[in-house]
């Protein structure tokens, strides 16, 4: 093993920053591959334990993450999904062709009621993504009414006839998805007008208040974001933005290669590893760009920024359907997640939600399942679990003042928060070959009872399987006192948390 590098991380525990919304740890479930069917939903006749067809071991595993929200039904699928085909007796529901993902036929057995039952089992807030690309304003408006209205109306009567008397609470609503691409191949100004129109008819029924999210840019397409901002505000306005939609989204995927040849999730060398980390770190620049533009049009920050698709994207596993986007999940993916969260925490005043793509069996999944009842928690799952203490906590300033680099790329990532008399520090050693001695230079508060946890593996390519589910799993980490605060030693390619009592 290489000689250990050193780092010093200064943490100002008494300087409160923005609240880290728990919704930055959100999830995404699309009708894609085996995310819904075979992942979340196995049907009521399955020998795998289920409730109403919803797979209970998946629910149990995700509840351990305190999953805050779940986005559904897409993704690209959202803009070809017609919600009325997914309600009523299952035997009467028409089938459909999922043209985006594998050209497979779906029976619509997982629809609105099943999704809401899943959210209730998870204790997660529903984030429903409506159909702009092939739908209508009326169709989306009636879906909101069906879900959230009480009293008596055509949609309420239909919901009650389908077995649900009380309306549901729907906090988050997406107005289309990737409308610059699979959601309609629209121009920015054309979609901006549609976003205003749709938002107008997405009513607040009773005490349900929708947080309407306009479908935003790909990566750093600031022109798209500006078109949406111009639709509700203007530079130098004394008034705030028109209260039509409350947030603007964007999508950002970490791809080390090209879109045609993304590379393997588990078979990669050091060059590909470093390219991955560099690409993941660039999320900071992208968020800063969108935030600066939003600050110009919305200086009081009434509009939220939502990253409702993020994660790694590799070539599918050999022998699997290329339209199902099934990929393995290695220690490298876990580090992509850990450094993303550090960036999210830094931008928590403007960034209000993020949704990893996706929750089960697709892209950078939390869980991988099989049809025989097997379930594997991925390395990325463990990062989410280890970081739970940041949910709704107050971010505090973190400065990495000494650290190793590789070709000008920083190899240490860190963030910290305080809540309820406790602090949580997260730190990643992104160096794939050398250990790291880290001094946590704690300032502004006395601390006690430090407890460390470590996530690492034999190499960055390591991953969990049904035969070896603990190949990458958290373990205790020794935390030593140091004149400036505390000291930890991190192996190569590792992620750690240190919890403290203040």
Automatic annotation (TrEMBL):
It holds the Pfam family ASD1_dom. It comes from the Bacteria. Keywords: Carbohydrate metabolism, Glycosidase, Hydrolase. Its EC number is 3.2.1.55. It is an enzyme of class 3 (hydrolase). Residues 308-494 form the Alpha-L-arabinofuranosidase C-terminal domain. InterPro entries: Alpha-L-AF_C, ASD1_cat, GH, Glyco_hydro_b. The keyword ATP-binding does not apply. Gene3D superfamilies: Glycosidases, Golgi alpha-mannosidase II. One of its GO terms (molecular function) is alpha-L-arabinofuranosidase activity. One of its GO terms (biological process) is polysaccharide catabolic process. It catalyses: Hydrolysis of terminal non-reducing alpha-L-arabinofuranoside residues in alpha-L-arabinosides. Homohexamer; trimer of dimers. Belongs to the glycosyl hydrolase 51 family. This is non-reducing end alpha-L-arabinofuranosidase. It comes from Kribbella pratensis. The lineage of its organism: Bacteria, Bacillati, Actinomycetota, Actinomycetes, Propionibacteriales.
């Amino acid at each position: 093993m290489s000689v250990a590098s050193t780092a010093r991380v200064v943490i100002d525990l008494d300087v409160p920053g923005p609240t880290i919304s728990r919704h930055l740890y959100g999830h995404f479930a699309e009708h894609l591959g085996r995310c819904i069917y075979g992942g979340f939903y196995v049907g009521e006749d399955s020998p795998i334990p289920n409730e109403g067809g919803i797979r209970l071991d998946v629910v149990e595993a995700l509840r351990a993450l305190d999953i805050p929200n779940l986005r559904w039904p897409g993704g690209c699928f959202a803009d070809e999904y017609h919600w009325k085909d997914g309600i009523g007796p299952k035997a009467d529901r028409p089938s459909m062709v999922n043209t985006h993902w594998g050209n497979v036929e779906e029976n619509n057995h997982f629809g609105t009621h099943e999704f809401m039952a899943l959210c209730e089992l998870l204790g997660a807030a529903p984030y429903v993504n409506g159909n702009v690309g092939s739908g209508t304003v009326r169709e989306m408006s009636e879906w909101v009414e069906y879900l959230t209205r009480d009293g008596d109306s055509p949609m309420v009567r239909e919901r009650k006839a389908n077995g649900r008397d009380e309306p549901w609470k729907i906090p988050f609503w997406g107005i289309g998805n990737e409308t610059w691409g699979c959601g309609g191949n629209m121009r920015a100004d054309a979609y901006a007008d549609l976003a205003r129109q749709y938002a107008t008819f997405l009513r607040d029924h009773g005490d349900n208040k929708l947080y309407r999210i306009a479908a935003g840019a790909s990566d750093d397409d600031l022109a798209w974001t500006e078109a949406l901002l111009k639709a509700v505000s203007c530079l130098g306005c004394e008034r705030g933005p028109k209260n039509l939609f409350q947030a603007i989204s964007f999508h950002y995927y970490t791809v080390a290669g090209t879109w045609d040849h993304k590379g393997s999730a588990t078979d990669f060398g050091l060059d590909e590893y470093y390219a991955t980390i560099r690409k993941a770190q660039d999320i900071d620049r992208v968020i800063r760009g969108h935030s600066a533009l939003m600050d110009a049009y919305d200086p009081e920050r009434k509009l939220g920024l939502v990253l409702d698709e993020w994660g790694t994207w590799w070539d599918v596993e050999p022998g699997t359907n290329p339209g199902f986007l099934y990929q393995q999940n290695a220690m490298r993916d876990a580090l992509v997640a850990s450094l993303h969260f550090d960036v999210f925490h830094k931008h928590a005043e403007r960034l209000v939600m993020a949704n990893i793509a996706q929750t089960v069996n697709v892209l950078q999944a939390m869980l991988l399942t099989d049809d025989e009842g097997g379930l594997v928690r991925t390395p990325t799952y463990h990062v989410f679990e280890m970081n739970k203490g940041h949910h709704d906590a107050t971010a505090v300033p973190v400065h990495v003042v000494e650290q190793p680099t590789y070709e000008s790329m920083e190899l240490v990532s860190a963030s910290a928060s305080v809540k309820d008399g406790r602090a949580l520090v997260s730190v990643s050693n992104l160096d794939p070959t050398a250990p790291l001695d880290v001094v946590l230079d704690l300032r502004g508060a006395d601390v006690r009872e430090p407890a460390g946890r470590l996530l690492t593996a034999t190499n960055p390519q390591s991953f969990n399987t049904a035969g070896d589910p603990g190949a990458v799993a958290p373990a205790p980490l020794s935390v030593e006192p140091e004149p400036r605060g505390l000291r930890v030693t991190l192996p190569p390619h590792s992620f750690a948390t240190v919890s403290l009592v203040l």
